[in-house]
Amino acid sequence: MDLLNTLVDKGLRRETPTREEALAVLATSDDDLLDVVAAAGKVRRHWFGRRVKLNYLVNLKSGLCPEDCSYCSQRLGSTAGILKYTWLKPDQASEAAAAGLAGGAKRVCLVASGRGPTDRDVDRVSDTIKAIKDRHEDVEVCACLGLLSDGQAERLRAAGADAYNHNLNTSEATYGDITTTHTYADRVDTVHKAHAAGLSACSGLIAGMGERDEDLVDVVFALRELDPDSVPVNFLIPFEGTPLAKEWNLTPQRCVRILAMVRFVCPDVEVRIAGGREVHLRSLQPLALHLANSIFLGDYLTSEGQAGKADLEMIADAGFEVEGADEVTLPEHRAAAGPGGCGSHAAAGGCGSEGEPAGGGVCGTAEASAPASAEPRTDLVAVRRRGAGTDLAPNA
Ligand code: SF4
């Protein structure tokens, strides 16, 4: 297929595809699925080999958020039966992180619900970063605390944070349909702050909220412009008790096509399969490893993932290998730029939601181009009841 040959060539040269080419990937048929995977897989292997980076989520503060992000189980008014707790103490967070690191994770993502941190919260997270790095010198720490005020990114960087996550989530045009308490521009501003402070930017999206193909392409092109080092791709987990509870739009094949499109547009960036991997990719998870070079190990923020051991077995069975702590994730031209030195900046988003969209909402459903045939799989959605914030051992 000429389209795929062109996209491979561009991906190997780090050249941006056209919007039409990105849309064409999303429009390919199931008959072409393996050809799409083979093409995007060449780009993935060129920049990242067969390595899979493992990341581990620690939810420092769960639920009780005053913001209204419709996809999120922690939102204002959510009746999802999730764990609710306030800030974990540094030693509790360090204990939770240790389980993920023992399972093979090389990055710990410290996440807190809320609009953004107070300066006191930044102190707490700084203490937590120290507690983790005292025990695990080589660990990468990414903070995900919501919208940042002036000076907070610099303080996190000084405390030892390596990265900051804030997702754009969806296109600028549809952002107001999923959240009213902050704006797309607010999210962009926080990613700029992270970049400016020398933090490695992590910013991604959520698919499956009823958006059009054009919206998915818009947000991925906005991310390319923003130039984060890592792009988490979430697939909406339609939690009961949130506005988007009925939005079951995704098939495993569509998820694969979305990941392929992201790989073609962001060829040399760490593409991470985030929340919804098990729920939506299901038995196609190993195929998706040919596109993404990074996943979360074990559980998500408020929902359970498959057993950490099953993640490791899947990686091995599919012929991939877990990236070691001594291996550099990013290609040389990016890694040489150092944390945060990953190019131009343009937008970002993120707050307490990395790895796990969780609510419901009504955004662009009338124009949704996702297949209507996707069946609700509520049987696969399990609220997290173990790990951080509980007395039970974490899944790692
Ligand atoms: S995504 Fe973040 S800000 Fe939005 S409701 Fe969830 S925890 Fe709150």
TrEMBL record:
Q: Which residues form a coiled coil?
A: none
Q: Name one GO molecular function term.
A: 2 iron, 2 sulfur cluster binding
Q: Which GO terms describe its biological process?
A: biotin biosynthetic process
Q: Which domain of life is it from?
A: Bacteria
Keyword terms, alphabetized:
2Fe-2S, 4Fe-4S, Biotin biosynthesis, Iron, Iron-sulfur, Metal-binding, S-adenosyl-L-methionine, Transferase
UniProt entry tagged with the keyword Lipid biosynthesis = no
User: Which pathway is it part of?
Assistant: Cofactor biosynthesis; biotin biosynthesis; biotin from 7,8-diaminononanoate: step 2/2
Q: Where is the sequence biased in composition, kind Low complexity?
A: 366-375
- Which intervals hold domain Radical SAM core? 47-277
Recorded hits in PROSITE patterns, A to Z, give: RADICAL_SAM
- Say which enzyme class the record assigns: transferase
**Which residues does the record give as [4Fe-4S] cluster binding sites?**
C65, C69, C72
Where does the record place Gly residues bias? 338-363
Q: Which residues cross the membrane?
A: none
Q: Does the keyword Metal-binding apply?
A: yes
Ligand binding ([2Fe-2S] cluster): C109, C142, C202, R272
Cofactor annotation remark: Binds 1 [2Fe-2S] cluster. The cluster is coordinated with 3 cysteines and 1 arginine. Binds 1 [4Fe-4S] cluster. The cluster is coordinated with 3 cysteines and an exchangeable S-adenosyl-L-methionine.
What is said about its interaction partners and assembly? Homodimer.
**Function text:** Catalyzes the conversion of dethiobiotin (DTB) to biotin by the insertion of a sulfur atom into dethiobiotin via a radical-based mechanism.
Q: Record's family?
A: Belongs to the radical SAM superfamily. Biotin synthase family.
Q: What is this protein called?
A: Biotin synthase
Lineage runs: Bacteria, Bacillati, Actinomycetota, Actinomycetes, Kitasatosporales
